[in-house]
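Ticket #4471: complex job returned nothing on first submit. Input attached below:
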Amino acid sequence: MITRFTMLLVTIVLMFLSDKSDLSKSGRHARIIYAMLMLPVLYLGIVFVTELRWPNLDELLRYLFSGPVKVILASLNATQ
Amino acid sequence: MKSKQESVSSFQMASLLLTFTTGSSVIFIPGQITNAAKNGAWISILISYLLGVMILAILIYLYKRAPELSWVGFMRKTAGPWVTSLLLIPLTFVIFWQLAAIVIEIGGFFKSTMMKDTPNSIIQGLFFLTVALTARAGIEVMARMFLLLLIFMYIFVMAVLLLASPLFHGEYLLPVIPDGFKPILYGAYISYGFPYAEIALFSLLLPFTRRKESGRLTKYLHLALFINCLTLVFSILCTIMVLGPMSGHLNYSLFQLARLISIQDILERVESVIGFSLIIGVYMKAAIVLFMITTLLSDWFNIKDSRLLTYPVALIGLLLSVSMYPDEITFFVDGYTMWTLIDHTAYVMPLLIIFVVALFRRKKGGTSSPTAASSSQNGKP
Amino acid sequence: MEKEETNSRCNDTSDSSESPQLSNDTTNDLPPLSSHLVENRQQIEHIFIDCSDLILLPWRYGPDLSEQAFSVYFDTMIQQHHTNYVKETLQDLVNHRVGTGESVTPEQIIRFFQNHGVSSGTAELLKDFDEVTRHITEGCLVIFFDKWNQALSYKAAEVEKRQVSEPINEPVVQGPHITLIEDINTNIGILRHLLQSPKLKFISFNAGRESNRTVSYGYLEGAVNPEVLTNFQSRIKSIKEEEILEVSYLEDWIGDSVYSPFPQVRYTERPDNTAAALLDGKIIVMVDGSPTVLICPGNFYEFLMSSEDYYQRTIFSSLIRLLRIGAFFIALMLPSTYVALSTFHSELIPTVLLLAILDTREGIPFPAFMEALIMEIFFELLREAGIRLPRPIGSAVSIVGALVIGQAAIQAKIASPVMVIVVALTGIASFALPQYSMAIALRIMRFPLMVMGATLGGVGIMIGFLLALLHLCKLRSLGQPYMAPTTPLDIWQLRDVLVMVPRKFLLRRPRNRHMHRVIRKQAK
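Support reply: We reran it on our side without changes. The output follows.
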């Protein structure tokens, strides 16, 4: 867990360093959007580091679609 | 307008389309479709190709309606900002999933063949780094670079398919329709999801075409899609001819094909060549998808330089790919059975909705309200 | 005579040496010429104090040799017979046109030269000391007359220059054996002789405060792309004060990316290469004092071509080109591929070869990467040392060094024979590339690729290769894509790139894109 955390931290720091000049040039609007993109990073980062089984994107998709998919597959006589 | 006025010629746009549709599918698709449709797999491809042609035609028509607008801009103009955002939300989620899925797939391939001991996160991290650097360079550089890589990939793949010809058994191709038509429809269902429905995403890239070349764009794009169809059909036929009834049970069919090539004891282990082409093909597709995401987000939220978002999006993709699927089997099921429905709903439905609305507005001279045809966006195909 | 004399640097101890950066130093404050000979002479002596090779030669003329004059010149830059010749010509003219040497008056001389009499030759009239100083340092002979506030200047410089001979660095088996030399006028003359057209334009300017070098750039109007030309001109514009000692200094201004290992401009010292480049629509830059010509914009595939390709038969040239492309990949990727294969992917090497390799690698204490690194560094040292060895020792040391040390390294089990072969092949492959700058680029790129191959195996090499390809595709030279014509794809231009097309097809249509575009537009 510590290794994962440090790796993630290093990655984020490197990312900020390389984007620093671009961010300072662009306006407040772009910085807000950039910060908003950091929210999923935060959430997923916690999931990654702690290996918790929190809800994730794949579960969302599965929840929404597995029902209709079963119907379609049944109609096509699929064995999968 | 477009960031830094980057533009590619229509030939380059068509080669990007060919890269996008063929790059990763030529390795994965033959096995999967043959598994579903047995010997009639190539018919499935033809069916889904026809659907793809229709999607491409709609794409080009909508692009030509307003070539100077970005796709998001066109959506806003046609359907209004609220409907646009409504349609874009599922698209964004699904395209993030796709980006992560591509890397999960290739990460699995790496782990099983070349780098057995490296942890998944490192492999995927390296991959994302390369992809992010590429997407950051812009679409012009990507188009230039990918043309070269595409040519190499094609040479390798064709060489492998031809070198396997001594192993061909033509009789494996018959009977063509052993179990009735339903398996072929199932195969068409899978191959429609991957790769043909995904070309709806190209609506994001078409505005980057150089304006004065839009005349030849239609020709080139359809040609590219046709070449893609031919390639897939050809590789399916070769797979069936070599592996016969076993072809559905092996995962990376072209890879397995290459394994069997042995000429004079010198030309062995050719699958490494296929491995490289696979990696390169998937890398190109991932770079294009990443670029699409940054274009989408920067157009949606009015950011002038889309390059700024490249690294954050790549990081999100990386975190998704390491945290999403703990086991491979669920991923395979999701990837090939659910994917068709998912990407049809998220990519193709918005396209169709905008298309219908645009047609309506044209007929009524642009005065009608855009609520007439937008149904619930979660509707079944 | 092959000796070339450099300009003797005069220790100018006047006030101007204290403020070299300002443009308004004392040389611009120099007064105009006065009509009094003595004042002029004092001023000259003051400016050129401590320049002991400056000669001030007083002489007289006129009735009873009563009129005074003196000549000023740098003895080191002017051959002795020239001085007399100029003086004689002056007196000759005076004899035949104006009067005998003893009867001419200052007023007659003034009138003659100011109205540019026919035989006044190449004499220039100078008005102030700024011009006088400049002309003297350029190697002219300046003559001051009493009672005249202007001076005459004759071009008389004759510095030793090299004979036009075999090119040192770019020999060919078949083709012209002349090279450009250090004198810019001779070079321009040779080029004009090769391309006899008024469309061949040469634009010169002087650069450098102390060095005052002539920098010339040339292009063929109608072949050069106007956008490229404007781009070039805007970059060159800022060079006025910098001391340009060698044409490669200009690369930093002209090139798009200073930090890229890949060269964006090409160099040559052959006039036939230069003429071909001009016909292709390139811009060439020359600097007085350097025989090398800079050709821009550079294109990746040009670095793999040599002028010899055009002088040999088509099929042979095509095969040689393919060989060079192979050499490029070998020079770039062979060590890293070997390290990656032998360390990580031994199953990819054919079994028999693998056994041979493993056999020879018995007992070597280092992993393959360390071995490769040691041998590579040794080879680089050898290469650098070889450049500086004096000729008599050179060949002996190279034989001894390569054979003995290589053999000794193998026997001491520091390196395996396979590794020596790999490193040697890499070196040979990089020498096969015609342009030295590209070979340098490969030398640089080889090491990161080795590191990637040693740490990440085949994947590392692939990622390194992809990143290198990305960089190449992103690179531009004077705004033109570096990897044209493969990307953006231009099939018409491909006829000369990877394989050679017979000369009939190459030359019949316009040679370059711009011409082709112009003619296509006109045809429409």
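The mean pLDDT of chain B is 81. Closing as resolved unless it happens again.
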